[in-house]
Structure to design on (413 residues):
């Protein structure tokens, strides 16, 4: 990244800005408004457009499910609110990041030694984070700033605001504007989110569950990451506060932005499996263990039936647990013990197949003269805890027909 000139970084910033998920979603609104305007002109033989007064009047006259004309005005309102909010957010964030780098010598010296303009770095980083691009003007990404906890905390909110929590923030802004202005358009937006056809305008219940799911994922990742990596090599030179902030920044970036303060190669295999799952999930994935009134009539399953996970979820949990129990072997004997061989063994046990990669002494990094090759039963080299977990996997595989409909509470969107 450091080979790019200042002007090239500015150009990349513009490309990230217009290519981000939030900004491309605005294109949908403009196209919908254009199509609506064209259809309206054809319907009225291009005579004249309906005035804003008549639009407001029609809002009272039409039923919720058959809205046509107010949609154009409401789209305009969404566009103005989104653009104004993003401009303020981007300006304030840019100012804070620039001030931090200017007055914190350690962060300022890093950029000066690399010949990177402070203002360009600030703008580039904020836009890249908000647009979920993950690019940073330094070759080491954010690893050179892992001791600058203040900078990480300033950048951190944009990871969520530009992706997973954009919809709840949008609804919060519309609610705030409704309470201030008392305009009917805002009430219509809040009460008819599905009719608007804007993917980021979600219902209140959906937003609450989305917020809970996002923070739930972060808490789980944060706790597991700290437990596994607190005393590892990647944490060397950091105090307790810096470890906490850096860990929080790392796990929050995993789902979308991809900015990293640690060497990914040095992170334990169990954490990497968890990261892979987090990267797979769409931004608006929600866990909805409760049912609305419409679902109650269609689905009479109990709450327990809705809380249980899917088959794939349990397999991922088993793989993570075994990676934890075999973490020492994963470190000392990586050619035999790795995530791929463990995954194959777990899936084989789940399907009651019996296929195994075996164990080869020739793949040992530290040769053992007493070692014997074993072409079957790779799990025979596992720890007692790992073997017990694999036994549970085999039982689970035999009884999987009793849980084939699990995971109903999860919605990937």
């Amino acid at each position: 990244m450091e080979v790019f000139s200042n002007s090239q970084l500015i150009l990349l910033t513009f490309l990230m800005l217009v290519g981000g998920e939030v900004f491309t979603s605005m294109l949908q609104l403009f196209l919908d408004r254009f199509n609506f305007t064209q259809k309206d002109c054809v319907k009225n033989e291009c005579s004249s457009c309906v005035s804003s007064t008549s639009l407001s009047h029609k809002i009272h006259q039409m039923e919720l499910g058959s809205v046509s004309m107010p949609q154009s005005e409401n789209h305009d309102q969404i566009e103005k609110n989104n653009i104004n909010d993003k401009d303020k957010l981007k300006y304030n964030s840019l100012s804070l990041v620039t001030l931090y780098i200017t007055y914190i010598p350690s962060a300022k010296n890093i950029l000066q030694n690399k010949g990177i303009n402070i203002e360009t770095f600030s703008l580039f980083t904020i836009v890249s984070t908000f647009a979920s691009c993950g690019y940073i003007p330094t070759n080491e990404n954010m690893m050179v700033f892992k001791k600058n906890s203040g900078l990480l905390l300033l950048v951190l909110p944009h990871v969520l605001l530009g992706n997973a929590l954009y919809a709840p923030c949008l609804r919060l802004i519309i609610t705030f504007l409704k309470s201030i202005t008392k305009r009917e358009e805002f009430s219509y937006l809040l009460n008819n989110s599905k009719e608007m056809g804007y993917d980021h305008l979600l219902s209140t219940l959906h937003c609450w569950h989305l917020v809970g799911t996002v923070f739930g994922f972060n808490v789980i990742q944060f706790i597991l990451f700290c437990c596994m990596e607190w005393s590892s090599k990647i944490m060397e030179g950091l105090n307790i506060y810096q470890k906490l902030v850096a860990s929080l920044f790392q796990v929050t970036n995993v789902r979308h932005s991809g900015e990293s303060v640690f060497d990914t190669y040095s992170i334990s295999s169990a954490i990497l499996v968890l990261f892979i799952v987090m990267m797979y999930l769409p931004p608006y994935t929600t866990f909805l263990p409760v049912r609305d009134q419409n679902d109650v009539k269609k689905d009479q399953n109990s709450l327990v039936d809705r809380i249980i996970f899917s088959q794939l979820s349990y397999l991922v949990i088993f793989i993570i647990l075994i990676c934890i129990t075999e973490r020492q072997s994963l470190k000392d004997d990586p050619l035999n013990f790795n995530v791929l061989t463990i995954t194959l063994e777990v899936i084989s046990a789940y399907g009651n197949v019996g296929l195994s990669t075996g164990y080869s002494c020739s793949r040992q990094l530290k040769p053992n003269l007493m070692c014997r090759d074993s072409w079957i039963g790779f799990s025979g080299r596992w720890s007692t805890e790992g073997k017990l977990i694999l036994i549970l996997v085999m039982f689970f595989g035999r009884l999987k027909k009793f849980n084939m409909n699990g995971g109903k509470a999860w919605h990937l969107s």
About this structure: The first strand starts at residue 286 and ends at 287.
